[in-house]
Design a protein that fits this description.
The protein is built from 17 helices and eleven strands. It is α+β, with helices and mostly antiparallel strands. The strands form three sheets. Strands 3, 4, 5, 6, 7, 8 and 9 form a seven-stranded mixed β-sheet that branches. Strands 1-2 form a two-stranded antiparallel ribbon. A two-stranded antiparallel ribbon has the order 10-11.
Length: 566
């Protein structure tokens, strides 16, 4: 039986990044938890060994139970009976296996029943789960909603809800509505305060992943007469209180095992999470950063299975007297698929480490005052996380779609048939560049880090690190790309035309992404020669992409936008 952790040495490479020592020491408060919990780590090596062992369990479950159930779940799917969701049989078995293995509430503190994992090994588990069953990763990964309760709810709410999540109860985030998709300011689900301090929720939510979960985070309009984000608050709804029914499950193209629900709230009793009026402005924004990271991990898992399916088929399939992997048209596709996979994974874990650093400092700040140096570090990593989450989600999801497409192409006509996993992988991949903010919205979030120089500062920090002589040609290529990027940023910035600036934003963000991922792979290759091939292949790909965008920007004038308008 395959183990989806131990069969992929790239995961241990990323888990062993040098920054992990500081992350773990901060997360474990210099290992003081051992005084209260006998299973807490004694030191860094003990903590890393713990992460490794838990990820082995994740890999074993995914390579066996979850992967074995994937096809049946895809065919059976969930259904609605009497306003409740009935999971596919395989989904029920997957959830039960994860509960028994203690794989829920991984990042929650031990005092609340969690494993106290940093974000990075938790995201690694999500990567592995997605490879096994992309749709199931949605259900399992929504445990991340507990972060919002931990960060913003009161202590009583933390004590009542988080241990339930750690014990295996499921969560959902109920944000979108029929008339409020990406524009969450338009949310109109009504929240009415009651004399006892509780609230009643009334209205409809749509496209809610795992919408019949045990515990919901609900965005609702608490301030009567308001129409924008300042009138929205966040609420915790407990399914045991009743008042919410599932009207229907969407009939989707992919991720069939994950029920996407339309919910009807009718006097559903709920409680306020945090402060009024901050639901969208503060809490959803924090929630969405975690969601972006989760979809980036999901995308990498899809890229992994797409590459592995394509590679296995290319080695096995023979045409004209030899395996098709020996044809240049095929081995080039496979090399590029692997380079895109490695590049998106490198960005994913770089981003998760940035998120770890600032979130841990935020948590420490609840216990004691941060030193000036710690405050500066928190600010630095918060900015980097803010810059890299939309890039990791946007580019990672696009790459996973491209890899799923190429996986089918390598299979030829067989790939169009349901006899092969790649047909399901292709359908599952498509949603990653849509939900939790489309790729176009990720560009909107990322472009300010182009104009304010965040990406340039990051690129310079990577460039300043030592590079072996053998890899210097790659660094020189990246420096040449960076010069083209800087010139393109200056060209676009010199034009004071918002429509033109918006039109060019995608190109600038992609250029930055190509260069950042190129440098990350160079750093990986410096630490581990197994990445030299992908670093070299991606360097060539990035060169062509950066040059293409640079040439387009140089030859384009603002008046030419009219050519593209309907």
């Amino acid at each position: 039986m395959a183990n989806f952790y131990t069969d992929n040495p790239d995961l241990r490479h990323h888990l062993g990044h040098p920054l992990m020592r500081k992350i773990v020491e901060l997360k474990e408060r210099n290992y003081t938890d051992v005084e209260k919990f006998d299973y807490a780590p004694l030191n860094f090596e003990d903590a890393m060994d713990n992460y490794d062992k838990v990820l082995e369990i994740v890999g074993e479950l995914c390579g066996g139970i979850i992967a074995d159930n994937t096809e049946d779940v895809d065919h059976q799917g969930p259904r609605v009976e009497n306003g409740r969701v009935i999971y596919a049989d395989g989904t029920k078995a997957n959830l039960e296996a994860c509960r028994k293995a203690g794989l829920m509430g991984m990042s929650m503190p031990r005092r609340l029943g969690g494993l106290n994992f940093p974000i990075t090994p938790y995201i690694m588990a999500a990567d592995i789960v997605s490879r096994a069953d992309t749709g199931f990763e949605n259900l399992w990964g929504l445990q991340d909603c507990a972060e919002t309760i931990y960060e913003f709810a009161n202590e009583d709410q933390k004590q009542r809800y988080i241990p339930r999540v750690c014990a295996g109860e499921t969560m959902s985030m109920d944000l979108t509505e029929p008339d409020a998709g990406s524009d969450l300011q338009s949310v109109m689900l009504k929240a009415t305060e009651q004399p006892d301090g509780t609230w009643l929720l009334n209205g409809v939510k749509r496209f809610i992943t795992n919408g019949d979960s045990d515990i919901h985070l609900v965005l609702a309009r608490s301030e009567e007469g308001t129409k924008d984000g300042r009138g929205l608050s966040m609420f915790i709804y407990d399914k045991r209180n009743g008042g919410v029914t599932v009207r229907r499950i969407e009939n989707k193209m992919g991720i069939k095992g994950s029920p996407t629900c339309e919910l009807v709230f009718k006097n559903a009793k709920a409680e306020l999470c945090g402060s009024r009026r901050l639901g969208l402005i503060k809490y959803v924004m924090a929630l969405m950063n975690g969601a972006r990271l989760g979809i980036a991990a999901q995308s990498v898992g899809v890229s992994e299975i797409a590459y592995r399916e394509a590679l296995a088929y290319a080695k096995d399939r023979r045409q004209f007297g030899k395996a098709i992997i020996d044809f240049p048209a095929v081995f080039e596709m496979l090399a590029v698929m692997k380079a895109k996979l490695d590049a998106s994974r490198s960005l994913l874990y770089e981003t998760s480490r940035y998120v770890d650093m600032y979130k841990i400092y935020e948590d420490i700040a609840k216990e004691r005052a941060l030193t000036p140096e710690e405050k500066a570090e928190m600010k630095k990593y918060s900015k980097l996380a803010d810059a890299c989450t939309p890039m990791a989600k946007g580019m990672g999801s696009e790459y996973c779609n491209q890899n799923a497409y190429d996986c089918i192409q390598i299979h030829g006509g067989s790939g169009f048939m349901k006899d092969y996993a790649c047909e399901r992988v292709y359908r599952d991949a498509r949603i990653t560049s849509i939900y939790e903010g489309t790729t176009q919205l990720q560009v909107v979030a990322a472009i300010r880090h182009v104009t304010t120089g965040t990406y340039m500062t990051l690129i310079n920090s990577y460039d300043s690190q030592e590079t072996p002589e053998a890899l210097m040609p790659l660094k020189e290529n990246l420096r040449a790309m960076t010069a083209k990027y800087e010139n393109a940023v200056a060209t676009v910035g010199a034009v004071k035309d918002q429509a033109y600036n918006d039109f060019m934003a995608r190109r600038l963000v992609e250029m930055a992404g190509n260069i950042v991922m190129g440098y990350l792979l160079l750093l990986d290759a410096t630490r581990n020669e197994a990445f030299v091939r992908s670093a070299s292949v991606y360097n060539k790909l990035a060169q062509s992409e950066v040059a293409r965008h640079a040439e387009f920007i140089a030859a384009f004038t603002p008046d030419q936008i009219e050519l593209y308008k309907a």
